[in-house]
Amino acid sequence: MHEGSMEQLWSTSQLAGGNVAYIEELYELYLTDPNSVPEQWRNYFGTLPRVEGGNTNDTPHTPIKEQFLLIAQNQRRLGSTTQAQVSSGYDQKQLRVFQLINAYRFRGHQHAKLDPLGIMEREQVPDLDLRYHELSEADMDSVFQTGSLFMGKEEATLSEIRDALEETYCQSIGAEFMHIVDTAEKRWFQQRIESVRAKPDYGEEAKTHLLERLTAAEGLEKFLGSKYPGVKRFGLEGGETLIPLMDELIQRVGTYGAKEVVIGMAHRGRLNVLVNTLGKAPGDLFDEFDGKATFDHSGDVKYHQGFSSNVLTPGGEVHLALAFNPSHLEIVSPVVEGSVRARQDRRNDPVGDTVVPVNIHGDSAFAGQGVVMETLQMSQTRGYKTGGTIHIVVNNQVGFTTSKREDVRSTEYCTDVAKMVQAPILHVNGDDPEAVLFVTQLAVDYRNEFKKDVVIDLVCYRRRGHNEADEPSATQPLMYSVIKKQPTTRTLYAKTLQDSGVVSEDHIKKMESDYRDALESGKHVVKSLVTKPNSQLFVDWSPYLGHDNSTTASTKFDLKRLQELANKAQEVPEGFQVQRQVNKILEDRRKMAAGAQPINWGFAETMAYATLLDEGYPIRLTGQDVGRGTFSHRHAVMHNQKDGSSYCSLQSLKEDQPTFTIHDSLLSEEAVLGFEYGYATTTPNMLVIWEAQFGDFANGAQVVMDQFISSGEHKWGRLCGLTQLLPHGYEGQGPEHSSARLERYLQLCAEHNMQVCVPTTPSQIFHLLRRQVIRPLRKPLVVMSPKSLLRHKQAVSTLEDLAEGEFQTILPETEELNPKDVTRLVFCSGKVYYDLVDRRRTEEMNNVAIIRIEQLYPFPEEELYAAISEYSNVKEVMWCQEEPMNQGAWYSSQHHMRRVTHRLNPNLYLDYAGRQPSAAPAAGYMALHLEQQEQLIKDALGL
């Protein structure tokens, strides 16, 4: 501390002797929340020196506190008792009052009246008791300073203070925000909530609109319940305030200038949101219930369907998109984020003002599913942030049949996981529509102000069972005995408005009849719906419709321009010091560009990106190590050895080039792959790639593959050109670092839903990546990318292969064999080809032809037949793979190969050469691995 500050502190009378304990506690309060201490103390503590290099948003921390207390203790030791004493009983009680105020801000939510049913078990909170703070009823009329609790009123009686705290923090809203580190955010919430005691006085128009929205929400459920009794619809009964919540949210983000809102939600209330929020025509919904709906694909159940529409807000037209969602509940969350980021990027909006993500969750799912944590962890990362997500938990207080908290979760609230990113959490009683309206406004305003995630915990109930055919009282008898007697939210609110003279009984009945008439007409019931939407708010998919796998496009590229781009891609800024091994890679690539050295995998892949960028195609590449590449082959992002700065030459090929986005991702597979799927379904003109660190890591994202990537087009008509690079190869690295589980992807292949390829040369990956975006066909691509082939001396190509070639689904025999001498055919894919060729050369075998199948699905039967048709004397045909028999391509692809060999000679039998069936993907012992590898090579070649 500076000498002047010490002098000032020493000479200040209230810091002397017996006051130290009081000041210590006051300073502790200040460190926690500056607003909790009187203004003069706040100003004084604010003059203390800040910690060097600390967060400028934070208050002084331990080093300053220690200096401050040291001086105070020195005063006490020197016996400075001649100065004024302020540690009287009153001063101590004043401090206790500040502590009480702080306690309510921290823990008032634990005593809030959140449960419409009144059966939620709440723990006693000693901090909220007067006696805990050494206060009593005798102090109720005493006047104390209030800090910032009252606007424009610096003092109040303890009775007034406690009443204000109870009104603000312990009624229909339980606000959790004191866990946030940023002081500005905490102050913002305090001012917004305390200024109106968490209960703004809304006008008659707003109240009438709330009732109208509740009437719509309840009216649809009643209508469907009477027209389709017992049919599953996962109704919103008990949580009807979700509809006015969504209405306010959309209108308010529109006021802030948002142009799009992307919504993800599971089953509960989905049909209600479709009709009453997005404006789906009730007649279309009734047709689906009646089985009259027609699809040009397999379709999906009603409560999984997506929808889009445009609505009018005070800020203009807003496009709404409800994402398609499978039964895997929370998996839609990262998909929504990816779609939002794509839309923001298209609008050149790095802040997130124009597109808002809204994820609607169930309480058990939000607490229980790990993808929620992964998605939250994305929220402020460079590659995945979307300017803050508004999370809404429709908290039914019960899962399917499980309601005991100790079974559902280990935390007090289902929303506690959101505290990991310091998201504010606004718990609200779903039977108090005005409180729901207020927290919605708070959430939208917070997101707009701070660009961070925020959670609304809509505490409600489920009037029926998990679905309308389920009897809930079998497992929740006590809860449902209460629910049977519980009036609906609309009934309660209508009575409140009627009693206060806002609406009449006739008005209430007219609302009901008007809505029912609108439903029966079958036309949309959303008044703000734009019937002729602005087409500029939509993505144009028309160029990508109506294509099949016969669609072709040239992937050739001018050789001279290729060399220019190759040289440009190896440039680094002046003074940028590249690491020694990386510099060697750049030097080698310059030689490759000159044609002086064979082209390897890293060069070819990099040039695929460079040439696409040159032709106007944007690229997004993410994964855990994509900048360098897990196996050090890419080095798309280089790091300055002097100052740690980074440089990506692919972002600087020419002026006005498309974006090349490359981000090392968080250590997640499920959420990241879901994000990239959402991104790819929103940007058809972009090459979107996710690379697994090791191919088998994609196992953790299998649900994304199962329920979105492989089936999204067939279920929902959603086209997607997402590319997955999955390193795969048996290099003796054990079970978890060998197989990308090729069999799982092939098992999901049907009806030309995706592409599965195993390229073995640099030119193949070059043309495969270019084909993926140049060809107007949009199908997911799974690439079993290699590891050892990245630097294999035989896995090389030439500049001419890149400039003049194309992706070949079948690579025929490359040696000059006499077709009449060939008596044995070996089919294979991937790295094992080079092992087979090496052994054939060693053994000087001229009777064996080796054919590479580079695309396993859609299986190229005609191309394979063309590659073997000249071998008329073949007696034996083998499929060779490195994977165990129950894995790899054998079971999924043998029928394709048999059809082809049968055409060549009906008497030929396709046999197997590979590892024996195994529960594990590979051997963990190198000796065993080599023994198995030797045997499968012998079996394939007939040695």
UniProtKB/TrEMBL annotation:
**Highest taxon in the source lineage:** Bacteria
Q: Which residues form the Transketolase-like pyrimidine-binding domain?
A: 599-792
Tell me the protein family, please.
Belongs to the alpha-ketoglutarate dehydrogenase family.
UniProt keyword Oxidoreductase present: yes
Question: Oligomeric state and partners?
Answer: Homodimer. Part of the 2-oxoglutarate dehydrogenase (OGDH) complex composed of E1 (2-oxoglutarate dehydrogenase), E2 (dihydrolipoamide succinyltransferase) and E3 (dihydrolipoamide dehydrogenase); the complex contains multiple copies of the three enzymatic components (E1, E2 and E3).
The entry's protein name is 2-oxoglutarate dehydrogenase E1 component
Q: Which GO terms describe its molecular function?
A: oxoglutarate dehydrogenase (succinyl-transferring) activity; thiamine pyrophosphate binding
Q: Which GO terms describe its biological process?
A: glycolytic process; tricarboxylic acid cycle
Task: Give the organism's phylogenetic lineage.
Answer: Bacteria, Pseudomonadati, Pseudomonadota, Gammaproteobacteria, Oceanospirillales
Report the cofactors.
thiamine diphosphate
Q: Which PANTHER family does the UniProt record give?
A: 2-OXOADIPATE DEHYDROGENASE COMPLEX COMPONENT E1, 2-OXOGLUTARATE DEHYDROGENASE
The enzyme's E.C. designation:
1.2.4.2
